[in-house]
Amino acid sequence: MYDSHVRVSAAGSPAASSTVTEAVLPGIVEPDGIQVRTRPARPAGPGQVVLAMEAAGVSFAEQQMRRGKYYDQPPFPFVPGYDLVGRAVDAGEGVPGRVLGRRFAVLTKTGAWASHVSVDVGDLTEVPEPVDSADAETFVVNGITAYQMLHRLAEVRAGDTVLVLGANGGVGSTLVQLARIAGAKVVGTASSKHHDAVRTLGATPLDYRDPGLHEQLRALAPKGYDAVFDHVGGEGIVTSYRLLAPKGTLVSYGTASTRDVQGSSKAPVLKLFARLMWWNAAPNCKSAHFYNIWAGRRRLDTFRAKLHADLTQVFALLADGSLTPQVAARIPLADVAKAVEMAESGTVVGKVVLVP
Ligand SMILES: NC(=O)c1ccc[n+]([C@@H]2O[C@H](COP(=O)([O-])OP(=O)(O)OC[C@H]3O[C@@H](n4cnc5c(N)ncnc54)[C@H](OP(=O)(O)O)[C@@H]3O)[C@@H](O)[C@H]2O)c1
User: Fold this and answer.
1) What is the mean pLDDT of the chain?
2) C-alpha 257 to ligand 1 mean position (Å)
3) Where do the coiled-coil regions begin and end (predicted)?
């Protein structure tokens, strides 16, 4: 039993220790311009938990944010960090004391690159105890995104043929693994240096820079693809749509091709939305969606229930060995610049994870 009205904390909580270490994006900077600073710790507020970070991810979103190119990033300066795994060390008023000492995953969008992070208790999903924190971290934003696109939007089934762009990336490699578990045949694009890794995950790799890519994609699925997952956007999205089978589903979930293009961060996304709406209005049986992990958050209880259910499924697959985590490197938070450089180098397979 617990007393849900009393503030409680565990040994090692920031209420007991005095400072928090965090990485700050001060503006549009190169990786070595990211600042590491300390500030006084704050106790957990009502309904909140303080997590002592054990692993925080370096995602594609931060590559966009440090260029000022993420669709709805906060104004500078801010602490980035899309997701983390951490242990509860302080619980605010109204939070069950039994959460203390347990390990949770949480999606934050920003704020996770810190030694201690305050989050709403309703946003926590427990990590099964035998699973390593960095391993679990690789499947938080990647796992939720891949699982929901595959099972809630495209409804991929055994026997389907699917195309995953960027099949060695964080989301892409998770999509490949989950699609294989669902019994689908998977074709995945990636740089040729990553083809062995993609093959190991169970997909047929193709080089997205090969001028003959389109013919190769057609040859591998002559009747078209039942689902195409596209994070690249730009003009290539037209090809993705054309590759669909007569009842196929296009799931677009990013505009990575415009990361280094000068100008508005919103224009490429709005152009993409217009295209998807136009295709959906076309008189055929194909469908085209944009997936946004934050969609539906206005109905918070439903949003959280789906997220917990889906991430719990992903963690169960990780715990039983069905999913293979790919941790490219574990880098201390103090060396965040090195972590970002590595994540952006295009040389690593898997996710770069920050550790305390
Ligand atoms: N909409 C949402 O809610 C949501 C949620 C999560 C993530 N995302 C988006 O998902 C995307 C991937 O994120 P991530 O963290 O998985 O990134 P990541 O690990 O850095 O992977 C990016 C991948 O993109 C590949 N790539 C780059 N250019 C390509 C091209 N022209 N054609 C095909 N593949 C290409 C890279 O392949 P090589 O390394 O082989 O070059 C790499 O595999 C990002 O755009 C991110 O914003 C969206």
Assistant:
1) 93
2) 9
3) none
Residues with CB under 6 A from ligand 1: 59-61, 141, 145, 165-166, 168-172, 189-191, 194, 208, 231-232, 253-254, 256-257, 291-293, 346
Minimal-distance CA residue to ligand 1 atom 13: 60
* Residue 125 · residue 307 · CB < 8 Å: yes
Tens of pLDDT, residues 57-104: 999 999 999 999 898 899 999 999 999 999 999 999 999 999 999 999
* Structural domains of the chain ordered from first start: 8-138+325-355 (3.90.180.10), 141-290 (3.40.50.720)
Relative to beta strand 48-58, strand 116-120 is antiparallel
117-168 pLDDT per residue, tens? 999 999 999 999 999 999 999 999 999 999 999 999 999 999 999 999 999 9
Q: Looking at the DSSP assignment, which residues form a beta bridge with residue 49?
A: 91, 119
SS3 (DSSP) at 242: helix
Atom of ligand 1 nearest to the CA of 189: 33
Residue 257's pLDDT is what? 82
